[in-house]
Amino acid sequence: IGDPLNTIKNFNDFFVDELIINDISCSSPDFEFIAELASELFIPLTYGGGISSREDVKKVFQSGVEKIALSRSLFDEDLVNFIVDSYGSQSLVGILEYKKRRVSSTYYISNHPNVSEQECFEFIRKMQFGEVMVKIVDYDGTANGFCSYFKGYPSNFSIPVTINGGIESME
What we know:
Number of helices: 5
Structural class: alpha/beta
Order of helices and strands: HEHEHEHEEHEE
């Protein structure tokens, strides 16, 4: 996306409702950079990337972030409970990264390949996440339309879901 600070200024100008930054290459959060981004943004900010401890959570929230997104740490019950108990369910987003298998037409949740889709959604419900972001990795940034292998989430799932990857229009 180029220079993140200029991009954030553009989002402010276009009256975007909320911004999610998910640093997929991050092994630990750059708290100074997160604080700089949050200080330039006039809309709610969700941050994910490298968050693996209570101290990380505290520092990210102290940086001005409204919500934390967990991907690799999604099933860390201690961390999830700490966030929900300390900051509330509304401050926690679970990220499920769907990816197509190379040797078949099936998909898997790449950040948790040994856990079924149903188990992921059930865990998110049980642990009281406030939101879910379904990220279709193979389609991310393509604008080629929505993928055929994501069949949706359970019909009785009441937690808000955002879908990311391949969307080409508002229709």
